[in-house]
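re the bet — no i am not wrong, look at it urself. input seq straight from the record:
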Amino acid sequence: MRRRLTLAIVLLVAGTVLVTSVGSYLLIRHDSLTTSARELSGQAAAISATLTSSPNVTRVGFRRELRLISDAGALTGIDVIALYRDGSIRGRLPAGVTASMLDIPALRAGRQITAHTSSLLVYSTVPTPLTRQTAFLPVLVVTRQVHEPADGLRYFALVGAIGLALAALVATGLSRRFARPLAAAVRATGRIASGDLDATVPVTAHEDPEFARLAEAINTMGATLVRARDQERQFLLSVSHELRTPLTSIRGYADAVIDGATDDPTAAARVIAFEAGRLERLVQDLLDLARLDADRFSLRLETIDGAEVVHQVIEGFRPGMQELGVDLETAPATDRPLWVEADPDRLGQVVANLIENASSFARGRVTVGAGALDGRPAIWVADDGPGIPPDQITQVFLRHVSSDRVRGRRQGSGLGLAIVSELAGAMGASVEAQSPTAGGGGTRMVVWLRASSPRVLMTPSGSADPSFRPEAVAAAGPEALPAAVPPGMPPAMPPGMPPAMPPGMPPGMPPGMPPAMPAAMPPANPAAVPPDGGIDE
């Protein structure tokens, strides 16, 4: 690289000197010819005027005057030729000028002609009429030789040689300055690629900013790889512990049942089932992360009521939270619909992971809410635990990071919050940890969601009622439905619920009465009316 860089700079300087020299030569040559032609034209006109104003001069005197003028004017040659009316020329032309170079029509018309030859001989022809000579037209021909400016090329060559020498010295220094940090970066990245993650690139105080940033980027990459390696080791230790504990319990109780050493096989089977569930959750977390990494996670983004998702998840967690002695509460704002764009199943998984995480650290209460925070739609889960230390709050969503803030509670594998962060990002949302909360302790996990405008309800006649908004229905009750909906007609069911009057309804059902809802489905809640009212647009 050094040789190529040095050669490139030297060639660049050499090319610059060459182009400058050739350009200067052409400009000087052109300027010399132009200046000489202008001066010679003026001198020839003056000589012609002098000869014309001396009508009584003899031939011998005329020749003597021409020699004096030639010596005084530093002329190469000066002669007078005779131009006859038939266009013929008689007389001696100065050396370097031929009859073919003369513009006969222009001379007969009385015009002065100035030009030059390829040998840099400038000549000027001037018609010079004399009163005593009428048989022909005397024509004054004056020449001057312009010196070739090539003599100055020697100076250009000398300056070019000095420039090339300086360029070679500068190029050598620059190549070393550029190649040294690059070589150090190559050595460090090679060591990192071979497994030595502690390799770094030294950064000097007077390093160029670009190379300094390159070195810092490589050093940061190495530090990140070291941190990832340490997290992977911690993850393996955590997963090994998570696997060993339930497997030990499963094997112990299974052996006890086989050997008949337990008096209550049902209780032993219940413990085995519980530990198997722990294993299943751990394996499912690992599979979810693997799918997210491979971009194979299916998402179905649509307009949903985030508050309804929160209510459904909370109901599933109540029995387990009661066994832990933790109160599971909902924030007051959760009673109103929260229309957001998300995948209902994945959003439910996010809320479930946050509640499960909060239950591991809460002292006695976990609060879940859905509504507007700082003017943005959000879902949050807060606990009254000890909070998160400031040096750990930025790491809680990293993989394989676990905490032992509370003694006596189970310690997870550090994947739950990582899955929350990945799922939120996949849905175009974000997640944030806030700690401490009001009261000097506690933690609040906030999922910032994308708002979705509720759509207008379509009346049975097929027309849109722009005055309808789900928020108004939630606040005023079923009587706030549009007047186009007949009395007694039930409000629209949430997405996924069967139509109000499905085919094959049981006989004897009163007209206008909806069929019984499935046992697993919660009762219709006017506050959960979806934005499209359950009627296809």
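see?? The chain has three domains: 2-152, 200-297, 302-451. told u. also Confidence is low (pLDDT under 50) at residues 455-537. so pay up
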